[in-house]
Amino acid sequence: MRVMGFSRLERLSDIAGVEAEGDRLFSATHEEIMSGRTTDVYFLKTRDILESCGRLDAPVVAEIFARKSGVFAGIPEVLRLLEGSGVEILSLKEGDLFGPKEVVARISGPYSAFGLFETVILGMLASSTGWATAARECVDAAEGKPVLSFGARHVHPAVAPVMERAAVVAGGCVGASCILGAQLAGVQPKGTIPHAAILIAGDTLEVARVYDRSLPEGEPRIILVDTFRDEAEESLRIYEALGERLSGIRLDTPSERGGVTPDLVSEIRSRLDMAGAGDVEVIVSGGLNPERIRILSAAGAASFGVGSYIAHAAPRDMTMDLKVVDGKPLAKRGRIPGITENPSFSRML
């Protein structure tokens, strides 16, 4: 069987005919994933054994559960992987909460249709669920104030769009900075300007003026204010120049200068209010986590750009167990044979 130009691996001997090209990026292509090249080798050995036994197409039911609670994500990739294979998939919806050891998905069909991809399926769900869970923690901490996912620089670019999508679609972030990740989530990429632009231009105010002139109407004017001067002084300076066209100022003060503190946020909020800039929002980023979001929100921060907390979230360990074989309840020791009902399931495939 060929998958988009690649022969799908069917047996252990197929590996001998496949080599990893030297002149390439190290991430797997979509074709390599769907042809089985990112699975664990023992699933090819399993296919050889079952084929020899005449049992490769045995009808089975597999259930997937997570060891810790979280926010479910990643199922669309699984559906894309297995569409047309003849299996039935029931699962939670993306964004659903689940508890420890709760069954989050069930796959029914011939083992030959999906067994090779156990590693891939679990990896897709584990990673996206981990990122979505971390994003939801931040969103909950913000209590209705916007949270954006800025984590692309903290992970390999091959998975950055997956992460950003999960953070938005399942985690509840209102946007993401990664262009492809935002597009996959159905939103426009969001971001202001980096320190590099201001350092090269030489003056924050000059950059703010050019930025204001070049942006289309309706696009928020949000200016980074911690590059050269005191953040409160720079905020007022930018407001005096842009006036009501200024939507917000962003703080990303490095840890070497104390980072973004509640006192700093409170001072800037107060000074802007006294200057008549009550509608100018204070936007914060840099090393945020749920605890810091709560503290900075109470100090007056209006929205939050979160990077490493989402990007570095531990995947939610997922396990796939066969629970029914040939229509009969069956399981390995330590597991309960038979289907585990979950009333939250929806038919996905």
List the helices and strands and how they pair.
Elements: E1 2-3, E2 6-7, H1 30-34, H2 42-53, E3 59-66, E4 70-71, H3 75-82, E5 88-91, E6 97-98, E7 103-110, H4 111-114, H5 118-142, E8 147-149, H6 160-169, E9 175-176, H7 179-184, H8 195-201, H9 204-214, E10 221-224, H10 231-242, E11 246-251, H11 262-274, E12 281-285, H12 290-299, E13 303-306, H13 308-311, E14 318-325, E15 328-329, E16 346-347
Parallel strand pairs: 8-9, 8-13, 10-11, 11-12, 12-13
Antiparallel strand pairs: 1-2, 3-7, 3-14, 4-6, 5-7, 5-16, 14-15
Structure description:
With 349 residues, the chain is α/β, with parallel strands linked by helices. The protein folds into 2 domains: 2-128 and 315-347, Quinolinate phosphoribosyl transferase, N-terminal domain (Aldehyde Oxidoreductase, domain 3, Alpha-Beta Complex), CATH 3.90.1170; 130-311, TIM Barrel, CATH 3.20.20. Helix content is 36%, strand content 18%. The protein has a 6-stranded antiparallel β-sheet. A 6-stranded parallel β-sheet has the order 9-8-13-12-11-10. Strands 1-2 form a two-stranded antiparallel ribbon. Helix 3 (75-82) packs antiparallel against helix 5 and helix 11 (262-274) packs parallel to helix 12 (290-299). It is elongated. The protein starts with a strand and ends with a strand. The mean pLDDT is 94.
